[in-house]
Specification:
By secondary structure, the chain is mostly beta strands. It has two helices and 18 strands. It has an 18-stranded mixed β-sheet that branches. The longest helix has 6 residues. The two termini are 31 Å apart.
């Protein structure tokens, strides 16, 4: 597991088990399998049905049974607050993750649709009742990123880690690095596990988007239904405002394994300027199958 700062993780177990988002702002991967040939094509959901929705119109404890805070290891310069911490608020139909300076360092938040036992130890997931995962689905959230420096905001997916054979898949629908890279839409797929050289393989892409630079509300999604193609192979497709950003032909297990979602605000250790406090807002979380 690659850490992005010199600070130790919460525990050796968390370090071993928990995946991280790969941070490579400003780097393009035009020759890494991603295609933007159909950029701007509209998302089609007419053959799919809504299987999950959270509009954040009701109180949440972020301690289950579906959404949990602080299940993932800290990944940037911050420490993730546990449920009930100052990093989290829900009001007016919006989930807000706040990064702030405290006496013991920077704090922020991560919310995901599994608890740690489900994510890393094989505990049972009953989608929509006890956690949430989905196989072959389109995942989407509405988000507003701040006009701030040091931002590392993300909407991303993971497969639960099988304790009998370590390894998991990761899809980053959007990683956003704030005012220092205000047009940057970063998206990636990752494969983690001892079977990979160095424990990790990735295919990442950077796309400059004028619309994202307004720091307004936008829809961010990723399609794992396997109905799109590249050269006759099933493709994973990233969307912004339900218009295609890029696609990549992915291995079959990206379309046949269950994924859970994460909403995250970290602080980028590679940005020399950091705005604190800062907030990322999320709303209209939906999954279609």
């Amino acid at each position: 597991m690659r850490r992005l700062s010199g600070r130790a993780a919460s525990s050796p177990v968390a370090l071993f088990l928990a995946p991280v988002l790969i941070l490579l702002p400003g780097v393009a991967y035009a020759d890494n399998g991603w295609s933007e040939a159909q950029r701007g094509s509209p998302l089609v959901l007419s053959t799919s049905k809504l299987v999950f929705e959270d509009l954040f119109n009701t109180p949440h404890t972020l301690s289950g049974p579906i959404l949990w805070a602080k299940q993932h290891a800290d990944v940037g310069l911050e420490r993730f607050d546990p449920a009930g911490g100052a990093a989290y608020s829900i009001a007016g139909g919006v989930l807000k993750l706040r990064a702030y300076q405290a006496a013991d360092g920077i704090h922020s938040g991560n919310v995901q649709s599994t608890n740690a036992n489900q994510a890393y130890q094989g505990a049972q997931i009953v989608p929509g009742r006890n956690g949430f995962t989905c196989v072959g689905c389109y995942f989407e959230v509405r988000a507003q990123f701040p006009n701030a420096r040091g931002t590392w905001g993300a909407f991303w997916l993971l497969t639960p880690d099988d304790p009998r054979r370590r390894g998991h898949l990761e899809v980053d629908a959007i990683e956003y690095f704030g005012a220092g890279d205000k047009r940057g839409h970063h998206h990636s797929i990752h494969r983690w596990g001892p079977q990979e050289p160095g424990g990790h393989a990735k295919r990442s892409d950077y796309t400059g988007m004028d619309a994202i630079a307004d720091f307004g509300w936008h829809l961010y999604g990723v399609d794992l239904r396997g109905i799109a193609e590249i050269d006759g192979k099933p493709a994973l497709v990233v969307y912004m405002d339900r218009k295609e950003v890029a696609r990549i032909a992915a291995d079959a297990d990206f379309f046949t394994r269950p994924f859970y979602f994460n909403m995250t605000l970290s602080i980028n250790p590679q940005d020399s300027v950091r705005t604190l406090p800062q907030t990322v807002s999320f709303d209209d979380l939906r999954v279609y199958k």
